[in-house]
Amino acid sequence: MVSLDRIDVRILQELQQDSSLTNQELADRVGLSPSPCLRRVKALEDSGIVDRKVMLLKRSELGLKLTAFIQISMDRHTPDRFTVFEEQVNSFPEVRACNLVTGQNCDYLVEVVVEDMEKYHDFLLGKLTRIPGVSGVQSSFLLRSIKENTSLPLGHLL
User: Fold this and answer.
1) Residue 37 phi, psi dihedral angles, 5° rounding
2) Which H helix or E strand runs over 136?
3) Is 84 within 8 Å of 131 (Cβ atoms)?
């Protein structure tokens, strides 16, 4: 784990909220002058802490009105089965997240975003259930998002 001071943590908190901040805006928010702020950001990026910078889009404004959380069970727990599944799922643009889990009656939890139930049906039968090894699928659908956050908690670093 990389050693971070309070200013580094503050920089990361600010950038998690808005990575489009200019260096001057970021420097002002964390109480640094622009040059040291830029050096710290570069060092944080070089350290590997920063995975990537992205722009978050509103699903509903793009016609993506259906979110499904899918529990996937595999027929065999072998590395080759898991590798094939993960490679296939990674190629599907509808998949927002895929996690290998324990403690559930499934092997994977997958989040899928599509336009509507018809598109979900096409995705489920045309792609997901065609992956070798998928033996069970149970879907739940998002009614309303209560909290959706992309930021990681950093208070433990202070």
Assistant:
1) -65, -45
2) strand 134-141
3) yes
CA–CA dist 152, 158 (Å, integer): 14
Single pTM value for the model: 0.87
Instruction: Tell me whether residue 125 is in a domain.
Output: yes
pLDDT of 2 strictly over 80: no
What tokens were used for 39?
A: 């050096």
Q: Which pLDDT does position 45 carry in this prediction?
A: 95
Greatest pairwise CA separation for the chain in angstroms = 57
Q: pLDDT tens digits, residue range 141-157? A: 999 999 998 899 998 88
Give the DSSP letter string of 86-111.
HHHHHT-TTEEEEEE-SSSSSSEEEE
* Single-letter code of the amino acid located at 130: R
Question: What is the tens place of the pLDDT at every residue in 83-106?
Answer: 999 999 999 999 999 999 998 789
Q: Does residue 44 sit in the same domain as residue 105?
A: no
Distance CA 63, CA 43 (A): 39
Q: Which domain holds residue 65?
A: 60-141
Same domain, 131 and 68: yes
Provide the β-strand partners of residue 139: 70
